[in-house]
Amino acid sequence: ILRVIVSENTGVVFSLNLTRGFGTAAAATSLMPYNAGVALVANCLYLFDVPVQAGDVVNFQFGALTTILMLDAYLITTMGP
């Protein structure tokens, strides 16, 4: 699980750009907006959890010019099925 904590100061759409199968012929990239594609509220803190797999490549994208107040990403490993 990739835990993302983000805050910015202008209220923009925040997205995850995920490439699965990087470096293979079957690589697929998806741009997935957080918060159902609705702009984040300026100066508020958001926390999102995203399932990721070994080998995934992740990048973050803001929909417009903004000042990033916080952007932290933590990999949370889990045990079990």
Question: What is the topological layout?
Answer:
Blueprint: E1 2-8, E2 14-20, E3 28-33, E4 46-50, E5 57-62, E6 68-75
Antiparallel strand pairs: 1-4, 1-6, 2-3, 2-5
Offer a concise description of the structure.
This protein is mostly beta strands and 81 residues long.
Molecular structure report:
With 81 residues, the chain is an all-beta fold. It is built from no helices and 6 strands. The chain has strands at 2-8, 14-20, 28-33, 46-50, 57-62, 68-75. The strands form 2 sheets. The chain has a 3-stranded antiparallel beta sheet, with no helix packed on it. The chain has a 3-stranded antiparallel beta sheet with strand order 3-2-5, with no helix packed on it.
**Alpha-beta classification:** mainly beta
The whole-angstrom Rg is 14 Å
Q: What oligomeric state is this?
A: single chain
Task: State the end-to-end distance.
Answer: 13 Å
The count of β-strands is 6
